[in-house]
Amino acid sequence: MFTIGLIGAGTMGNTHSRSYRQIAGARIVAVCDIDGEKANQLASAWGATIFTSMEDMLKSEQFDAVDICLPTDLHRQAVELAASYGKHVFCEKPIALTVEDSEAMIEACKKAGVTLMVGHVVRFFPEYRAAREQLLSGRLGDPAVVRTIRSGAFPSWSGWFKDDSRSGGPLLDLAIHDFDYLRWCFGPVRRVFSRTLTTKREGMEHTLTLLRFESGVMAHVEASWAYPQGAPFQTSLEITGTKGLALFEKDKSNSIVKFGGPLNQQGVPDSPLSKSPYALELEHFIECVKHKKEPITSGEEALASLKIGIAAFRSAQTNLPVEMEGILQ
Boundaries of each Gfo/Idh/MocA-like oxidoreductase N-terminal domain copy (predicted)? Predict the structure, then answer.
């Protein structure tokens, strides 16, 4: 049995709770949230102990790891505290809002000898994995055009998203998924240019970011909270190469890979999942802890992706391109 103390009983906490149901041998034994009612609602399904103080939970309950689903500005404090009690740590993305906080979290876990994994779940979505496999196999040829979209209505269920100093806005909450995925596909980024449109409606923002990779590849990343309430959440990925095209759009029945023109095309196998990408991600974390392996989305990996987000944020503020070599804090 692998036991978990879950920190944060909001939207992501509940998503993770459902995901652990799909993992054999995983069990939530403690739930912590400053809102005792929320903690009780989540904990009751597991028969877990309820806490409103993380430190009380760490002192009182025995478990293998903590799963941190808190607002981003609280990540450092929570990770450092968990590590000080010798707990392995899964932390939702982004790892933090600054390089300094991220490095402190990584160091705290290293010093304590515990695993740190950050929730960049897109790496576990089958469509995104399939597109990367097609790219790395050479079937797409040399990449030429790369586009991603991640958009929807403002996340009005929690007020902290409105404050960029807490959430990082759509660049660090939404686009960070694609920054991480694209870096996984194409390697280090050299230069970032980003523009942001802020509407009169509070919290509604739209961002466009251009990434230039060290390899010469350029990628266009769109992330938006500017859609009206009730609008569906949309994601898409396009990788066009000299030999083929990988295209994925959320809610379409198939991802498509085309070779040699419109008459020669095939669907990327959907591989219906018995487990959600979140369950696959959390299962990977558990396996890494058990076998003392480095997670695919380690603290260092998450920091490298965060730096792209920080560069995009600075570029949007100055309307100037930002060189990655200058992102030190």
Answer: 2-120
230 and 155 within one domain: yes
Which domain, by its residues, includes 66? Answer: 2-120+278-297
Only one residue has tokens 């102990």, namely 49
If asked whether residues 192 and 135 sit together in one domain, one would say yes
- Comparing CA positions, the residue from 148, 194, 166 lying closest to residue 312 is 194
Same domain, residue pair 318 and 176: yes
Strands 143-153 and 189-198: unpaired
C-alpha closest to that of 293 among 301, 282, 284, 302 = 284
Whether residues 43 and 79 share a domain: the answer is yes
Number of domains in the chain: 2
How many beta carbons lie within 10 A of that of residue 174, not counting itself? 27
Domain identity same for 255 and 135: yes
Q: How many CB atoms lie within 10 A of CB 69?
A: 23
pLDDT of 13-67, one tens digit each? 999 999 999 999 999 999 999 999 999 999 999 999 999 999 999 999 899 999 9
Which pTM was predicted? 0.92
Q: Which helix or strand (DSSP H or E) is residue 228 part of?
A: none
* Contact present, 176 and 93 (Cβ < 8 Å): yes
Within 8 A by CB and 6+ apart from 91, the residues are 68, 75, 78, 79, 105, 116, 117, 118, 119
